[in-house]
Amino acid sequence: MRVNFTVNGRQQEADDVWEGESLLYVLRERLGLPGSKNACEQGECGSCTVRLDGVPVCSCLVAAGQVEGRDVVTVEGLAEFSKQREEHGHGGACGTGGGCGSKGVSLDAAKQWQAHGPNSELRSRAGDSQTGEGVELSNIQQAFIDAGAVQCGFCTPGLLIQADALLEENSSPSDQDIREALSGNLCRCTGYEKILDAVRLAAARQSEAV
Amino acid sequence: MDFLRPASWEEALAAKAEYPSAVPIAGGTDVMVEINFDHRRPEYLLDLNRIGLLREWEVGEDVVRLGASVPYTQIMENLRTELPGLALASHTVASPQIRNRGGVGGNLGCASPAGDSHPALLAAGAEVEVESVRGSRLIPIDEFYTGVKRNALAADELIKTVHVKKADGPQQYSKVGSRNAMVIAVCAFGLALHPETRTVRTGIGSAAPTPIRAKAAEEFLNAALEEGGFWESGKVITPSIAKQFGDLASGAANPIDDVRGTAKYRRHAVGIMARRQLIWTWEQYRGTGNGRSLEGAA
Questions:
Q1: Interface mutation vs chain A, best among B31, B39, B47, B95, most A CBs within 10 Å
Q2: What per-residue string of b and e applies to A126-154 under the rule 16 or more CB within 10 Å gives b?
């Protein structure tokens, strides 16, 4: 079957999709967006987390056919998503679906966001991926780099999406809030301390910026 | 495999009538795992995501009519007052990402004895509204679970709404697991006080082939509270009543040994949860402020 949906602000079309296929598979194997990681395929690890109509979900548990006409943000589009949110108010990319409707996203904001044609492919930028220098990153991405919250990096995309969504909802989360928000994201390297540091750092920078 | 995408409830019922083997998929948090692992290859997937009414809820005079696909996150955020037991249970489901997708309809459809919402539904009192092209019916929650991963649905029926009685008194819920998140219950227990009818109801999860009520424990406690005039006086529950209640709840369990825990442990834990929840809810009923908080408690 064919699936049409919006990914990081761009209309995408995936062909020859098997009916039992997951959104994760479509993103990685059909659209060439390998940022969302495939680890457990059962919703245990959170490394495939994406925003579906603004709501963080495990893309391995969403059937491809269920995203027809809906809006997906992956880690590849996170920097742009976050930038648009700063410029146009809360939830800049959530205008197309029902999931974020209560947050008052204007259609205009969503359209404007899409018209920019973002999709900042980090790997294609001439920047330093070790320090984030010269690369346009979201607040949470920069904080992960600065806090040393990345080791092997496999869990990082899911953590970034989930942590970004937390800070969107709650600008000054308690440690308990952070732990709970990230309870569905497994990391086997860091012991989580630096990840918590990164989220605290991003929250602090976010509140300074306001 | 065919992917059916009905745009309305009527279309969904028609599709289910035409293809009774179709597997409904809403949040996908159970169905997709089975497909990803090749444990299941349904001929038809029946996507319910386009049906808005399944994501709505309505707070009525006596019951909350909860759409089958209302995500657990919404229950936690919006129905904590009306359905405190179910809100607590929802908070113990998996992780935020899963709670953003999964709902009570899927728990009921799957009918796993370990489903987190079952003990809360049993304790609160609920009816499951199911519908087919032949018409709709309300199945009392006590008659809904018919076996391990089996329920009272006919092949052409879909779960539409769960009618859960609004809390008329304190409710509690606990779940035993190896960590706070992402854990299948070793066992779970829910308790609801119903001061209006001067009754208590219970629910036990993961400690029998189906979710069950601890009926002997309920009957004992109903009688003990009545005889002792506890509802009127609001006096402290005696330790002997609490112990007996816990023992009877433990006796109602009919668990198995498996990788998550032994039958012996489960029986023991059910008794402890029952006793503690009786004390928590009763303290809340008495208004002493000694009850357990309904916030957090994942």
A1: B95
A2: eeeeeebeebebbbbbbbbbebebbeeeb
> Does domain A128-209 bear CATH number 2.40.10.220?
no
Q: How far is A177 from chain B (nearest CA, A)?
A: 10
Please, are residues A195 and A187 in contact by the beta-carbon 8 Å criterion?
Answer: yes
Q: Which residue has the tokens 């709404």?
A: B161
Interface with A, mutate which of B97, B179, B184 (most A CBs under 10 A)? B97
Asked whether B166 and B82 are in contact (CB, 8 A), the reply is yes
Question: Could you give the CA distance from residue B169 to residue B284 in angstroms, rounded to a whole number?
Answer: 9
CA angle B281, B283, B288 (to 5 degrees): 140
CA distance B70 to chain A (A): 11
Give the tokens for residue A103: 């947050």
pLDDT tens for chain B, residues 1 to 298: 999 999 999 999 999 999 999 999 999 999 999 999 999 999 999 999 999 999 999 999 999 999 999 999 999 999 999 999 999 999 999 999 999 999 999 999 999 999 999 999 999 999 999 999 999 999 999 999 999 999 999 999 999 999 999 999 999 999 999 998 999 999 999 999 999 999 999 999 999 999 999 999 999 999 999 999 999 999 999 999 999 999 999 999 999 999 999 999 999 999 999 999 999 999 999 987 666 655 544 4
Is B139 within a domain? Answer: no
Range of the domain at B220: 173-286
- Tell me the CB-side half-sphere exposure of residue A153, using CA atoms within 13 A: 7
Query: Per the domain annotation, does B249 fall within a domain?
Result: yes
Q: B90 lies in a domain? A: no
The answer to whether position B151 is within a domain reads no
Q: What are the domain boundaries of chain A?
A: 128-209
The CATH number of the domain holding residue B224 is 3.30.390.50
Domain count for chain B: 2
pTM: 0.91
Which residues on B lie below 8 Å from A94 (Cβ)?
none
Angle of helix B215-227 relative to helix B239-252, nearest 10 degrees, comes to 160
Residues of chain A found within 8 Å of residue B101, distances taken between Cβ atoms:
57-58, 61-62
Residue B41: CATH number of its domain? 3.30.43.10
Q: Do the Cβ atoms of B28 and A68 come within 8 Å?
A: no
| Strands lying side by side in the sheet with B199-205 | B171-176, B187-194, B199-205
- CB distance from B95 to chain A under 8 Å? yes
* Closest alpha carbon within chain A to B183: A44
Residue B139 identity (one-letter amino acid) = I
Contact of A73 with A8, CB cutoff 8 Å:
yes
Helix (H) / strand (E) element for B267: namely helix B263-286
